[in-house]
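Input record (one chain):
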Amino acid sequence: MKTKLLALLFMAFAFTQAQVSTMRINDIKLGMSKTEVEKLIGKKIIIKLSEYNYPEDAVNIVHKGIAYSIFFNYDGEKTFNVTNITSKDPSLKTLSGVKYGDSLETLFNKYKGYNFRVYQLWDHNSEKRDPNQRVFSIEDGDNGSSLDFTLKNNKIVSYSVMYVEGC
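The corresponding structure, as predicted from the sequence alone:
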């Protein structure tokens, strides 16, 4: 009985941790305000602004041991909202079980019924597409967002969740 309870608790913990969807990575969700993120992580966030008072770069944070890069957008009313969340943490996995290090073939098999696209990343040094770096992007038209898997040598090395115009 004790073993079953421990196994059940472990499964519940594993399910609630390291989850990626088209709208969030763990507790950080698209659309969250800067204030909500600060409350979640327990720290003040400094956003570097452009000359036009819009966020210029990603903000790097660590929450529950996982590193994130977050882009905020200014809504015109003195509120900054999350528009993009990226992480390279190996403990992450999607709600359907796709994890860091999985192959492009795994993505094709898991998401064959979804609207997705695959493209090669641009290498600024060679000024050509890099055949060793790709993005597998799943569009979520209902939420106007996408989940992008960055792959290097056909293995997942990062996740990005973002709003997409025209999605």
